[in-house]
Amino acid sequence: MLAEAQAARELAGLSAADALRLLTLAGAEALGWGGEIGSLEPGKWADLCVIDLAGSGGVTDEQLAAAVLNGGADAIRATYVGGRLVFDGHG
């Protein structure tokens, strides 16, 4: 999905932040699930992906979003669905 968002960013001229939003809240809203998933808010499912962004401190939101998109699958450290760990990249 990160590669698809990056491709959409390049094809449509989106900012990294807008492309990242497509993967999160905008995607959930398109499915009619914006009230349950897509953002980190009280009452929503704890569906999330932990991405290693080492060395990304002190950057703008746009630069951080670009780092997420460019990190690719190798940067994913864990994924959680409903708060339950479903992938642990640390072994």
Can you tag this structure with a few keywords?
4 helices; 3 strands; Urease, subunit C, domain 1; 91 residues; alpha+beta; three-stranded antiparallel sheet; globular
Describe the structure.
This protein is of the alpha+beta class and 91 residues long. The protein has one domain: Urease, subunit C, domain 1. The chain contains 4 helices and 3 strands; from the N terminus they run H-H-H-E-H-E-E. A 3-stranded antiparallel sheet has the order 1-2-3, with no helix packed on it. Strand 2 and strand 3 form a beta hairpin. Helix 1 packs across helix 4 and helix 2 packs across helix 4. The longest helix has 11 residues. The mean pLDDT is 90.
Put simply, the count of helices is 4
Low-confidence stretches: none
Radius of gyration: 13 Å
Classify the fold: give the CATH topology.
Urease, subunit C, domain 1
Mean pLDDT: 90
Shape field: globular
Order of strands in the sheet with the most strands?
A: 1-2-3
What is the tally of beta strands? 3
The ordered string of helix (H) and strand (E) elements is HHHEHEE
CATH class: Mainly Beta
Characterize the main sheet: 3 strands, antiparallel
Structural class: alpha+beta
Through-space gap between termini: 22 Å
Number of domains: 1
